[in-house]
Queue: 3 jobs
Job 1
Amino acid sequence: MINNPAIILVDVQNDFFTGPLKIKRVINIVEPLQRLVVAARKNDVPVIYSIDAHYPQDVEVVRKWGSHAIKGTQGAQVIDDLKPEDGKDYIVEKRTYSGFYETGLDPLLRSLYKGEGVKTVVLGGLHTNMCIRHTSADAFFRGYQIVIAKDGVEAFTVEDHEQGLKYLEYVYNAKVMMTNEIIQEIVK
């Protein structure tokens, strides 16, 4: 049972879909995530975008991935197919793999549902074995239930994706579900 859910879309940004960190398979997650977001909005389930907003000197940029999702650039914008709805959805910027690390995500989640707070985070986006994994870790340690949209997450390789899903299930007790199953759970 999914209680007090929030949909969190991780790194669904231009630089990950059409820019320097794009992968061909990423297009497969767009339609399932669109359906999930539409159902969430119709059922008053919060939709949160956890997006990279790097500075040029950030560790991820300098030491690992090169210039990507630099704050204020087109590459850092959410892709058109998954644009946030003004006045309804939330955007939480991050500078590391985790959506929780030094961001306002946790206080936001705890303030929703008239102060009762979110109980279940439903994660979609990129990358199963990196940003989804680190966001899941921090959610787990903060007491949230974790659901992963199996057809709504992806990684650089199929192996990374599959290993990431197994790790999330085993280590963080994440429930891996197809988007249609999640939608059935959140529809009131």
Job 2
Amino acid sequence: MERVKTGISGLDELIEGGFPAGRSILISGACGTGKTIMSMQYIYKGALEHNEPGVYVTLDERPHLIREDVLRFGWDLKSLEEKNMLNIIDGSIAKLGMPSEEEFSLPVTGYDVDKLLLEIMRVIKRIEAKRVVIDSIPALGFNFENPAEVRKAILKLSYMLMRSGVTSVLVSEIQEGVNKFGKYGVEEYVVDGVIVLHYMGVGTQSNRTMHIRKMRATKHSEDLHPLEIKSKEGAIVHKIEEEYDEL
């Protein structure tokens, strides 16, 4: 099976070399666990190191703030955008009925999955994208009345992204201590892989961890792995034995 390098140090060796090509992967976690960093790292490194254009759909944060934030890691998104190796679709304020200053955005006339998909497909075709990130799924759910509608919307997203040939990452939110892998409890059944991030406090110390809950067509690690966020490097997944060696 063809594999897509994630660009996240330490992750590929845990999933047989990378994400299964053409599949959709869910990255979920509570606030501050590193979801946006990991998903942007996947897009940025794919374009920079593997010559795979990517589309980043932001439904929560304003694009100019994302560009500023990731400069701390040395990630110059503007340079990739100018080369058409990366496009950001702004859906962060369309739901408020306000226009975006971004080149690619959702219309202020309405906010739904179909309009989002049309814009994503247009941009995928424009730059021949190989990777897509949608950050985040809960931002789509504000106008859904029940989990069945959420499931249908995520199924549609996953199916259309698969048809377009991209390998996609969908971001979702969970609360610490809650036994769910996505905000609505249905996301994990629709996607092909699930990566769960945690932020745990023990005494005066806090630690991030990563757990690969599932990855179809892949023999993957089932351990809880330490996750570190470092300046100039981004997210780094450590092996369990590395932590023991430091003790």
Job 3
Amino acid sequence: MENFYKTLSNKYNVAVPRYTSYPTMPYWDNNTFDIDYWKESVKISFDESNIASGISLYIHLPFCESLCTYCGCNTRITKNHRVEGPYIAAVLKEWKLYRNVFRDVPVIREIHLGGGTPTFFSAENLHKLIDGILDGVHIHEKAEFSFEAHPANTTVTHLQTLYDLGFRRLSLGIQDFDPKVQFIINRWQTFEQVLAVTLQARRIGYTSINYDLIYGLPLQNLEGLINTMNIVSSLKPDRIAFYSYAHVPWIKPGQRKFTENDLPDAETKAKLQAIGRSMLLSFGYEEVGMDHFALPGDELLEAKKHSHLHRNFMGYTNQHTQLLVGLGVSSISDSWYGFAQNVKTVEEYLAAVSNADFPIVKGHLLNNEDLIIRRQILNIMCKAYAYWDETEGMSEEFSNILTRLQPLENDGLILLNDSVLIVTPLGQRFLRNICMCFDTRFWADKPVTQLFSMAI
């Protein structure tokens, strides 16, 4: 079985989108995107979903005091904390722009603070931010608030302040405990720091703690990963995101601080993924979708078991809202009918918002085929199956999709008939490849250069 999986890993280890959206960003039709149509799609989505399910907010806080060279996020490196106040003021102005679009009082179902390093900001300034966001809104009875944090700079004051504001979920960026790996990726945190933050958060009352781990990092080896996993096991976070390192130095120049020669080769990287996954399962974690693991009883795992799992630009969530509003530099909003991304530099963002302009730089409005394909990909990613009605199945494009799926069925990754696809346990490890068969925009205009990270 191990040799068979190795063969499949070699076969399917190709450049594939992560499918946090469909269409994927390189295939957004920016030329026909229109801000007024975007705002109209937000109104429609808000009207359809606000009362029943509420809306989600993602707030991007881009500042970091040092550059983690592996990082693919939009960041601004500075030790000048005077940037905090003006940035928070701008985010609240952008939120007001969206409040003016809504035709009723928003019901907040989900807030996630990402970055960057949200805990770069002082607890006092984070309090000002969340107070401003929540002023005059309703909070859904099942609301969940979460934030990302660096173990090296997260204080008890951070934890207590955000807890008092309603936050119950904490995500710590660990990546790897191996000192050699931490050195080359310039990401420093000790076991003692991670332990302290974890214990403090639990003592305060946080109900869910997630660790982010990455395989395929420079200088990473099997011995180091096994040690990292054993340390993580001793701390027992409720959830673990075990991501593949995405080496895209043509997009993130910071990754040129090391070379491809420092990275594990494809075979070693596949072993890192397989051993890490096997250890997590042996520790009692269960797989949730792609790259995610949770302990029994965790709400993410319960959502999977009851077919309520959802996936958006923030990753997997047990909260399914139709409208996601992204605030802050580079944030992406999703109205279900369209996507919009903000400008990518702090200066552009501050300037646009100060002029009462939506700071959007690009976007895409979905057509009917996009919406159909999006539903299929979301079902595969979240529920491990897809289905299509007779009208969809009769189209020429669906015939092409079935043709592309046939080799995956032959390899045992899926079970397939004329209208239903079921992902097998083996296929669960190749979800991105399965989704790519549905990606009509990709196949209509296959990239001539590498746009996406490798599948494994």
